[in-house]
Model the fold of this input.
Amino acid sequence: MHLLCRIHAQRSRSRGFSLIELLIVMALIGIISAFVVPQLITAFERSRQRRTLSDMRAIAGANGTYRVDFGDYATDLADLEPDFMSPVPPGDGWGYAWSYQSNGISYSLTSSGRDGASGPAAPLPWYDEPFEADMVLQNGTFTQAPTQQQ
Done:
């Protein structure tokens, strides 16, 4: 009878994990996520930034074609629809509306970045961060935008 109790005790111990084993696994998951999550957030922000730059280039191309056809730049982004660009993206990668000023002779298109507020000026050279920095396109040329890393 005593032998059966020992066999039963060994089986019950080998069925699960001890508290120490679970704590070690949880600590490892925490350490790994501490490295991965910030990188993932940065990747999402970088993709929003790249989408914004791409949309700004597309708007500049459509506005250049508009100028060839009519002699002046579009005074409003809605003037580019539907013949030159359909549809004009309603805002940047973060969902904020574009800032567009034009007098027909020149234009400026601005994205306020992640924070949606004007400023701050980005450091030079500017690769990705700060994502809050404004991106500015004037007459088809970026005057403030991140550059590609070499």
